[in-house]
Design brief:
Number of domains of chain A: 2
Oligomer: heterotrimer
Number of helices of chain A: 13
Largest sheet of chain B: 9 strands, mixed
CATH architecture of the largest domain in chain A: Orthogonal Bundle
CATH superfamily of the largest domain in chain A: MetI-like
Strand content of chain A: under 5%
Chains: A mainly alpha (302), B alpha/beta (425), C mainly alpha (294)
Largest sheet of chain A: 2 strands, antiparallel
Radius of gyration of chain A: 24 Å
Order of helices and strands of chain B: HEHEHEHHEEEHHEHHHHEHEEHHHHEHH
Order of helices and strands of chain A: HEEHHHHHHHHHHHH
Strand order of the largest sheet of chain A: 1-2
CATH topology of the largest domain in chain B: D-Maltodextrin-Binding Protein, domain 2
Shape of chain B: globular
Largest interface: A-C, 119 and 121 residues
CATH class of the largest domain in chain B: Alpha Beta
CATH class of the largest domain in chain A: Mainly Alpha
Radius of gyration of chain B: 24 Å
Number of domains of chain B: 2
CATH superfamily of the largest domain in chain B: Periplasmic binding protein-like II
CATH architecture of the largest domain in chain B: 3-Layer(aba) Sandwich
Number of strands of chain A: 2
CATH topology of the largest domain in chain A: MetI-like fold
Strand content of chain B: 15-25%
Distance between the termini of chain A: 27 Å
Number of helices of chain B: 18
C-alpha cells in the first residue's frame, strides 16, 4: 500500500492501479450513502422532466412538452430573472463581508469570541424574527432606515418590501446579513492554514497591511474562496426559506424565485414533470457556473 | 491524541447507527392487543384542535370495536405531507381534507374511495357545504365542519361610541364604512382602528364574488370593484391599518381584535372558538360579539362565504369499511353535536345543533349573534376546478399589488383578467 | 494541484494570526472596535425581538410600532411550554439526530475528501463533479423520489431515514477537500517515505492538521441539522420521534398561530447551538495549521 518515490515507468502503471483502489476506498463509505439516497433520486427527478406525473398515476412520456410550456410561461421567466438578480447581489456582497469580518476577527482583539458569536447569531435566529425586524427597519413610513434617509435629504426613500422595485434589494440586504456569519466560519477555518511566517517575512519587507492582505491572505485562501463561491452561488440559486418568510415572493411576483416555483408546481400542484423541468434549468445554470469555476480554479492551482 | 479523535468519531457513529435502528417502527398489524381494529386518521395539530378529539372520542364510544389512532401532521404543510405520503403508498385509513382544492386534486387522481352512496343519504339542505364535494356527480368526501364569515365586534368600543349593537343586525358595506370611520380614534401606539380587514385576498374578493354573484374562475373581475374601492378608501383614510404594514409586520387578526385595537372585523367562524378559549383562560379581556357579514343592500338577506372541511377514505386503506363508518359518523347528527360542543361550527346545521352551540358557556347568544349564524346563503370561498389553484395564485399576486398601491385598481383588475385568460387553461 | 506558496512546515511556528499593525495601532484598533460593537448590536436586534416576544402574550407579539419591552413579563411562558408540548422528547431527538449526523458527516466526509484531494486516480474529478452537481438540484425537486425509495426500504418514520439522508451529503466532502488542498503535499510525501500507509497519513497527519476545518464542518452541520424542518417533517410522523423544530411548528394552526410560544421555544432551541459554538471556537484561535508535525 505504501507508495515510494521516485517511481520507474513500470511501477507507475501499478501505482496508478493501486491509487485507483486506494482512492475509491476512501470515497466509498460516503459514496454508498450518497449514491443510493441522493444521486439516484436526483437522476430520477431530472428524468421526470420528460414525463407527466402527478405523484400517483403511472408517469406518461411527454418529450419536451414540459419545457415548451416553461418557455411560454411568464411566471417562469419572472422567477428566473429574480433568482439571477438575487444571486448577482447576494454572492459578491456576502463573500466580501464574510471575508472582511473573518480577517478582522482573526486578530487578537479583546472580546473576539463574543463578536464571532454575535455575527453568527443571525444564522440561528428564527426566520420569523428576522422577517419582522427587517420589515420593521425597512418600513416605508416609520422605519429607522427611511427616517435616516429623509434626514439626510432624500425626499422619496424606497418603499422596500412594499414596493416592486425595492423588494429584492431589501431581501438581498437581509440575506447578506443572515449568511455573513455562516461563511465567516468557513473563512476563519481557512485563515488558520496560513503560516504566520509569511506575514512576518512580508512585514520585514515593509509591506503594508493592505499589501499583505492582497498578496498573502487572498491567494492563500483560494481553495476556501472557491468553496465559498460555489456554495454561495448554489445556495443563492436555490434560495427559498428567507424569501418565503420575508415577502412570500411579493409584492406581486417581484421577489418570486425558482425554488418557490418548483415547490408550488411540484408538491403543491402535483405537476411533478413541469416542476422537474424547472429544476433542470436551475441545475444546468448552476452546474455551468460550477464547472467554469472548477476549471478556473484548477488552472490557477497549476 | 490523534488516534483518539478518529476512534471517538468512529465509535460515536457506529453506536448511533445501532441505536437508531431500534427506534421508530410501524405497528402494521392493524389490531390492538385486545383485538380492536385500529383505524388511522390523518389530521393536524391534534393537541390544539378540539373537534378532532371530540369526533374521535364520540366515534370510539359508538363503535367500541374500533380504536382510532390519530396521525398528527402539522397544519402548516399538511397537504404537502399527505401528498408525499400517498406518493409513497401510505395506507393511513382516513384523510382529513383541509380544503376543497386539495380535495379535488386527490379525488380526480383516484387516490380516494368513492363515497357517492353515502353522500346521497345526506340532506343537502341541512348538510352545508356538501355540494362542494361534487366532482362530476361523484363524491369522495363528506364534510363534518363548515366555517363561514361573520362580523366580529368589540362591545366595549361600540358602547363607548354610543352605537347600539342592534344596528349591526342589518348592515350594508356603506354602513360598515361609515361606522368604522366613526369608531377610529387615537394615534401612534394608542390608535384604535374602526375596522380590521385581514390581508387575505378573500376578505375582499370572496365577499364580492359571493354577494355580487361573480365567478372567481371566470376571468372577468369587474365585480371586485365596489368592494376594493371601499377597502382602499378606508385604508386611505386611516380607518384600516395599511395593508403593507399588516402584511410585512405579519400582524395577526388576533392581535388586532383580541387586544382591542380594532372595533369591527370580518372573519371566519373558526375565530369564535379561539376567542372562547382565550376568554376562558384570561388571555383576552375583550368583550366580543358576532353579527352577520355586512351586505351590499339592506334587504335583510344575508349572503356570506365559507369553506367546508371533510373526511375522506384513502384508496390504499386496508380497513375501508371501518373508515367509511368513521367518515359517516363525523357527518351525522351525533358527530355534528360533538363538533358543536367543541365550539366549532359543524357542517350539519339543524336548530338542535345551533341550540347546542349557543348553550356553550361564553358564546354570545343575543339576537344579533343568532342571526349571524343563520345566513341565507353560504357561497363556497373558492370554486372547485382544475384551474382553481392557478387562478388563486394570480389573484393573490394582483391583490398584493392593488393593496400596496403598486397598481391602480383599474390596472390591477385588468391585469387579473388578462393573466387568468392567458396563463390558465 | 497544491498551492505553492506554503513552504514546508517548521517544527515550531508562531500562531497564524495577522500581526498587529505597527503604526497608529490605537486609532485603527479603536475604529475596529467601534465597527464591531455597532455591528454586533445591529446583528442582535432580531434576536432581542425574539427574546422580548417570548415574554409576551400571543396577541401582543406583533404590533405597530414594535413594543420592545413587554407590557407585562410572562416568564411563565418558559415553564408553560414544557407542559404544552413534550419538549424533553423533542430536544432529545434533536440532540441525537444532530450529533449522529454530524459525526457521520465529519467522519465519512473527511475520509472521502482525502481520496479527492490527495490521491490521484482516473475519473476522480468526474466523480467529484457528480458530488457538486447534486448540490445544485434543489431538494424540493427530488424529495418525492427520495421518499419513495425510503418508503420501499421501510425506513419512513424512523430516525435512521434522516440519518442516512443527511449524513452522506456532498457538503462535507467538498469542504474538507478544499481544506486538504491547502496542506502541503511535502508532508504526506515525507510520511510515505517513513512507511506510513495512505490511511495512516490521513489519520495521523492530515486529520490532526485539519482541526479548524473539522470544527467548522461539525459546527455548520450541527446547526443545519438542528434547524432543519422540512426533512423531519416529511420523514417523521410519529410524535415520539419529532424534533424541536417540528415541536415549534405545532404552534402554527390552520388559521392562526401561538407566536409567543414559538418564540419561547426558539429562544430555548438556540441555547444548545450556542454551547456548541462556544466549544468549537477554540479551534479557530490555535493557529495549529503548521504545528502539527511533532
Amino acid at each position: 500500500m505504501t507508495v515510494t518515490l521516485p517511481a520507474s515507468p513500470r511501477t507507475q502503471v501499478g501505482r496508478r492501479r493501486s491509487n485507483t483502489w486506494v482512492g475509491w476506498s476512501f470515497i466509498l463509505p460516503n459514496f454508498l450513502g450518497f449514491a443510493v439516497l441522493t444521486l439516484v433520486p436526483v437522476i430520477a427527478s431530472l428524468a421526470l422532466a420528460f414525463l407527466d406525473w402527478d405523484s400517483y398515476s403511472t408517469p406518461r412520456w411527454v418529450g419536451l412538452a414540459n419545457f415548451e410550456r416553461m418557455i411560454h410561461n411568464d411566471t417562469f421567466w419572472t422567477a428566473l430573472r429574480n433568482t439571477a438578480y438575487y444571486a448577482v447581489g447576494h454572492v459578491p456582497l456576502t463573500l466580501c463581508a464574510a471575508l472582511g469580518f473573518a480577517v478582522l476577527l482573526n486578530q487578537r482583539l479583546r472580546g473576539v469570541r463574543f463578536f464571532r458569536t454575535a455575527l453568527f447569531f443571525p444564522y440561528i435566529t428564527s426566520l420569523v424574527a428576522v422577517a419582522v425586524v427587517w420589515n420593521m427597519l425597512l418600513s416605508p413610513e416609520l422605519g429607522p432606515v427611511n427616517q435616516f434617509l429623509r434626514a439626510i435629504g432624500i425626499d422619496h426613500p424606497p418603499g422596500w418590501t412594499t414596493s416592486t422595485t425595492w423588494a429584492m434589494p431589501a431581501v438581498i440586504l437581509a440575506s447578506v446579513w443572515r449568511d455573513l456569519g455562516y461563511y465567516m466560519i468557513l473563512y476563519l477555518a481557512g485563515l488558520q492554514t496560513i503560516p504566520g511566517e509569511l506575514y512576518e517575512a512580508a512585514q520585514v519587507d515593509g509591506a503594508s497591511g493592505w499589501q499583505r492582505f492582497w498578496n498573502i491572505t487572498v491567494p492563500s485562501l483560494r481553495p476556501t474562496t472557491f468553496f465559498v463561491l460555489i456554495m454561495l452561488t448554489i445556495s443563492s440559486f436555490k434560495v427559498f426559506d428567507l424569501v418565503q418568510v420575508m415577502t412570500e415572493g411579493g409584492p406581486g411576483r417581484s421577489t418570486l424565485v425558482l425554488s418557490q416555483v418548483i415547490f408550488r408546481e411540484g408538491i403543491t400542484q402535483g405537476r411533478f414533470g413541469y416542476s422537474s423541468a424547472v429544476s433542470m434549468v436551475l441545475f444546468v445554470i448552476v452546474l455551468t457556473i460550477t464547472v467554469v469555476q472548477f476549471q478556473w480554479q484548477r488552472r490557477s492551482e497549476r | 491524541m490523534k488516534r483518539h479523535l478518529t476512534t471517538t468519531l468512529a465509535a460515536t457513529a457506529a453506536l448511533a447507527l445501532l441505536t437508531a435502528c431500534g427506534g421508530g417502527g410501524d405497528s402494521g398489524s392493524g389490531q390492538t392487543a385486545d383485538g380492536k381494529q385500529i383505524l388511522k386518521v390523518a389530521l393536524w395539530n391534534y393537541a390544539t384542535t378540539p373537534e378532532f378529539k371530540a369526533i374521535i372520542e364520540g366515534f370510539e364510544n359508538a363503535n367500541p370495536d374500533i380504536d382510532v389512532e390519530p396521525v398528527d401532521i402539522l397544519a402548516d404543510d399538511y397537504s404537502e405531507k399527505v401528498t408525499t405520503m400517498l406518493a409513497g403508498g401510505d395506507s393511513t385509513d382516513v384523510l382529513t381534507m383541509k380544503n376543497v382544492i386539495d380535495y379535488s386534486r386527490f379525488g380526480t387522481r383516484g387516490q380516494l374511495v368513492p363515497l357517492t352512496d353515502e353522500a346521497k343519504k345526506l340532506d343537502p339542505a341541512k348538510q352545508s357545504g356538501l355540494d362542494a364535494y361534487d366532482l362530476d356527480g361523484k363524491y369522495y368526501a363528506l364534510p363534518y365542519r363548515q366555517d363561514f364569515w361573520v362580523l366580529y365586534y368589540n362591545k366595549t368600543l361600540l358602547k363607548q361610541a354610543g352605537v347600539a349593537e342592534s344596528k349591526l343586525q342589518n348592515l350594508s358595506w356603506d354602513g360598515y364604512a361609515t361606522l368604522a370611520k366613526s369608531l377610529t380614534k387615537g394615534d401612534g401606539a394608542n390608535k384604535v382602528y374602526g375596522a380590521h380587514q385581514h390581508t387575505w385576498r378573500s376578505v375582499v374578493q370572496a365577499t364580492a364574488a359571493a354577494q355580487a354573484g361573480g365567478d372567481l374562475l371566470g376571468g372577468d373581475y369587474g365585480f371586485f370593484k365596489d368592494q376594493y374601492r371601499m377597502t382602499l378608501d378606508l385604508q386611505q383614510g386611516g380607518t384600516l391599518m395599511p395593508w403593507a404594514t399588516a402584511s410585512s409586520q405579519k400582524i395577526t387578526y388576533d392581535t388586532m381584535f383580541a387586544t382591542g385595537k380594532a372595533a369591527l372585523m370580518p372573519m371566519g367562524t373558526w375565530y369564535a372558538s379561539r376567542l372562547l378559549a382565550d376568554t376562558k383562560s384570561g388571555k383576552t379581556k375583550v368583550e366580543w360579539g358576532m353579527a352577520p357579514l355586512p351586505q351590499r343592500a339592506t334587504d335583510g338577506k344575508v349572503t356570506t362565504f365559507g369553506s367546508p372541511t371533510a373526511f375522506a377514505v384513502n384508496k390504499n386503506s386496508k380497513h375501508t369499511d371501518a373508515a367509511k363508518k368513521f367518515v359517516e359518523w363525523a357527518a351525522s347528527e351525533a358527530g355534528a353535536t360533538a363538533v358543536a360542543k367543541a365550539g366549532v361550527t359543524p357542517s350539519l346545521q339543524t336548530q338542535a345543533i345551533l341550540d347546542t352551540y349557543f348553550a356553550l358557556p361564553g358564546v354570545p347568544n343575543d339576537a344579533v349573534a343568532k342571526s349571524a349564524f343563520k345566513p341565507g346563503e353560504v357561497v363556497l370561498e373558492m370554486p372547485v376546478g382544475d384551474k382553481s389553484s392557478d387562478v388563486d395564485q394570480i389573484l393573490v399576486e394582483e391583490h398584493e399589488l392593488i393593496m400596496t398601491g403598486e397598481k391602480s385598481l383599474d390596472d390591477g383588475l385588468a391585469e387579473m383578467s388578462k393573466r387568468v385568460k392567458n396563463e390558465v387553461g | 494541484m497544491t498551492l505553492t506558496i506554503s513552504p514546508p512546515a517548521p517544527v515550531e511556528a508562531p500562531p497564524a494570526e495577522v500581526p498587529r499593525p505597527r503604526r497608529r495601532p490605537s486609532v485603527r484598533r479603536a475604529f475596529a472596535y467601534l465597527l464591531l460593537v455597532v455591528l454586533s448590536v445591529a446583528v442582535l436586534v432580531p434576536f432581542a425581538w425574539m427574546v422580548s416576544s417570548s415574554l409576551k402574550l400571543d396577541a401582543e407579539v406583533f404590533s405597530v410600532p414594535i413594543r420592545w419591552i413587554p407590557a407585562e413579563f410572562h416568564w411563565d411562558n418558559f415553564t408553560r411550554i414544557w407542559e404544552r408540548i413534550p419538549l424533553v422528547t423533542y430536544l432529545r431527538n434533536s440532540v441525537f439526530l444532530s450529533l449522529v449526523i454530524t459525526a457521520l458527516q465529519v467522519l465519512t466526509g473527511s475520509f472521502a475528501a482525502y481520496g479527492f484531494a490527495k490521491v490521484r486516480f482516473p475519473g476522480r474529478d468526474a466523480l467529484f463533479l457528480a458530488y457538486l452537481a447534486t448540490i445544485a438540484v434543489p431538494w424540493q425537486a427530488y424529495m418525492v423520489p427520495q421518499y419513495i425509495i425510503m418508503q420501499k426500504a421501510g425506513l419512513v418514520n424512523t430516525h435512521l431515514s434522516l440519518i442516512l439522508l443527511q449524513a452522506f451529503g456532498a457538503f462535507g466532502v467538498f469542504l474538507m477537500r478544499q481544506y486538504y488542498l491547502t496542506i502541503p503535499d511535502e508532508l504526506s510525501e515525507a510520511a510515505r517515505l517513513d512507511g506510513l500507509s495512505e490511511y495512516g497519513i490521513w489519520a495521523r497527519i492530515i486529520l490532526p492538521l485539519s482541526k479548524p476545518a473539522l470544527a467548522s464542518l461539525a459546527l455548520l452541520t450541527f446547526v443545519n441539522t438542528w434547524n432543519d424542518y422540512m426533512g423531519p417533517f416529511i420523514y417523521l410522523t410519529d410524535n415520539k420521534l419529532w424534533t424541536i423544530q417540528l415541536g415549534l411548528r405545532s404552534f402554527v394552526g390552520l388559521y392562526d398561530a401561538e407566536y409567543a410560544m414559538i418564540m419561547t421555544g426558539s429562544v430555548l432551541s438556540v441555547l444548545p447551538i450556542l454551547v456548541i459554538f462556544l466549544l468549537g471556537q477554540k479551534y479557530f484561535v490555535q493557529g495549529i495549521a503548521t504545528s502539527g508535525m511533532k
